[in-house]
Amino acid sequence: MNISQAAKASGLSPKTIRYYERIELIGPASRGENGYRDYNTKDLDVLRFVQRARATGFSVEECRQLLSLYQNPERHSSEVKSLVQGKLKRVEAQIVELNHMRDTLQDLVQRCPGNEVAQCAIIDNLADQETC
Amino acid sequence: MNISQAAKASGLSPKTIRYYERIELIGPASRGENGYRDYNTKDLDVLRFVQRARATGFSVEECRQLLSLYQNPERHSSEVKSLVQGKLKRVEAQIVELNHMRDTLQDLVQRCPGNEVAQCAIIDNLADQETC
DNA sequence: GATAGACCTTACACCTACTGGAAGGTCAAC
DNA sequence: GTTGACCTTCCAGTAGGTGTAAGGTCTATC
After folding, report:
1. Coil, strand, or helix at residue A48?
2. What CDD domains does this protein's entry cite (chains A, B) (predicted)?
3. How many helices (H) and strands (E) does chain A have?
4. What is the pLDDT along chain A (132 residues), one digit of tens a residue?
5. Counting one residue from A and one from B, how many pairs have CB atoms under 8 Å apart?
6. Residue A38, strand partner residues
7. Which of B56, B70, B119 is the closest to A101 by Cβ?
8. Are A115 and B76 in contact (CB < 8 Å)?
């Protein structure tokens, strides 16, 4: 199975697969006589694992750790859990920040007339926090 | 007022101010005889404006537009409002995505025993969406 | 006058997680 | 034998800065 088939089957792009190989997130693919990369079902499992972990929100470095746990039969599930708990905390913090941002934006939108006049609460607010 | 004082007064770092000048988000600072950048209160207003807009979540390109509206007395508040409404929509979409991510992570954490056993719902889930 | 330390300048490299494009080799079909 | 769709590598660019180096300048102290 060559790279574009592996890409389709895993949900990654060929470019991304090559990139993952280059940064050694995944091992080097075996090569056919023509130098083309060749993937088997085990390789595909790894590609899918990474695709899902990325889609779930893990960074490439976190995927590296998850992958090493995935491939280690001696792992303890506690290690996996603490990794995911850490990620959860960071995601929750990001949500709090974005919610705050949304509230600010909503407030700005409500206080701006949105007509042909130049005076505008949004500009005023960004220009001078005090007049808020 | 030289760059580090302007930095302190605006909440940006000197590096960031130089960066903003380099990408022409802000105009070139005037220079003293020694070649040092020199900021007046008007410059400071612009720096503060940008700092607040960035902190509110606007991208540098969005800041560029906001700044040009800020500096244009002929502006219509409707232009400002639609810019901010667009941003609000994007932020809300991001929140939805992060909430989904958080739910997934919470579910994974709950279903992982977190002990010395290797078997773990997180790894299983990432390895094979079907066994989820 | 010399020197130390804190500033300033520019320029280049690095970060994340890819993506686009160029230049060239290979394969399958017609 | 040629076309088009693959494949290969490598380099550059994206956003929004930060780190570091090499060098100039300012101020204070000895």
Report:
1. helix
2. HTH_CueR (cd01108)
3. 6, 2
4. 999 999 999 999 999 999 999 999 999 999 999 999 999 999 999 999 999 999 999 999 999 999 999 999 999 999 999 999 999 999 999 999 999 999 999 999 998 888 888 888 888 888 886 533
5. 156
6. A30
7. B56
8. yes
